[in-house]
Amino acid sequence: MRKPILIGNWKMNGSLQANQALMVRVLPRLRMFRKSIDLAVCPPFPYLFQVRDLLGYTGIMLGAQNASAFVSGAYTGEVSATMLQEMGCRYALVGHSERRALFGESNQEVAARYRSVQSVGLTPVLCVGETLEERESDQTALVIEQQLQAVIDEVGLTAMASGIVAYEPVWAIGTGRTATPEQVSAVHQQIRRFFARSAPEAAEDISQTVRIIYGGSVKAGNAYELFSLADVDGGLIGGASLHADEFGTIAGALAEASGILEGECETD
Ligand SMILES: O=C(CO)COP(=O)(O)O
């Protein structure tokens, strides 16, 4: 049984005031789902401390948007996984397409960051996905398998079972252009099959237990349809996670799509 998970990636947005306002409005909406689905928000680094306090004991978790591959030392501008853990993070994204495309993070670098996140006990959320050009030239499976293989080479397949994979087609991020349910389903199944092929002896375990979530223009209006897909275990939400009502509705869609009935949700 794969527990559904919803993660808000705020990207480089927010301010002390805006974060507070968002949390005050969204937390009551999220709290009712906290037992049935895992929920997390990933603010920019400087706000981790503030958001940790705002989350308090709601059961909603804190995540970071990246983590250094290094433990400590002369790496100006980097933030170590240990620091994130000390700030109360439970999750860290690695390999977001914006990091890969805008900041030149290679598959190997992403894999090293994955390792450092996992080594301090945080759950890495490995983002994978193809560009439009890659999709149109039938490279989707190849590109994603290379992104996954680099991490398998670094930490081993078994270690990936406790991580999360986020499929985010680059062409669907922030564009309002969502992948169709058929496209999402096909890639999520491909990822599971790839895991199964990579370790025939442990295939059933990893390919069926690893959580694979979808990201890319998920909105209140399309969340339910995407989350109803058998191989989709939740979502990684960008723009819509900055709007309390919409993020709350998306959380409700995930609970509903996962068969969690309203009566099972907490209302306190
Ligand atoms: O990149 C994303 C989440 O990490 C998706 O962003 P949008 O939801 O804004 O398309």
* Low-confidence spans: none
Task: Identify every distinct bound molecule in the structure, by name, code or SMILES.
Answer: 1,3-dihydroxyacetonephosphate
**Tally of helical segments:** 12
What is the CATH first-level class name? Answer: Alpha Beta
Q: Name the helicity range.
A: 40-55%
CATH superfamily: Aldolase class I
Number of domains: 1
Largest sheet: spatial strand order: 1-2-3-4-5-6-7-8
Estimate the mean pLDDT confidence: 94
Function: Involved in the gluconeogenesis. Catalyzes stereospecifically the conversion of dihydroxyacetone phosphate (DHAP) to D-glyceraldehyde-3-phosphate (G3P).
Active site: 96, 168
GO cellular component, one term: cytosol
GO biological process, one term: gluconeogenesis
Structure notes:
It is a single chain. The chain has helices spanning 16-31, 48-55, 81-86, 97-102, 107-119, 132-136, 140-155, 157-160, 181-198, 203-209, 223-227, 244-257, and strands spanning 5-9, 38-42, 61-64, 89-94, 123-128, 164-167, 211-215, 234-237. By secondary structure, it is α/β, with parallel strands linked by helices. The chain has an eight-stranded parallel beta barrel, surrounded by five helices. Helix 1 packs parallel to helix 12 (244-257). The mean pLDDT is 94. 1,3-dihydroxyacetonephosphate (13P) binds next to strand 8.
Q: Which key terms come to mind for this protein?
A:
268 residues, alpha/beta, TIM Barrel, eight-stranded parallel barrel, 44% helix, globular, binds 1,3-dihydroxyacetonephosphate, cytoplasm, isomerase
Brief overview, please?
One of its GO terms (biological process) is gluconeogenesis. With 268 residues, this protein is an alpha/beta fold.
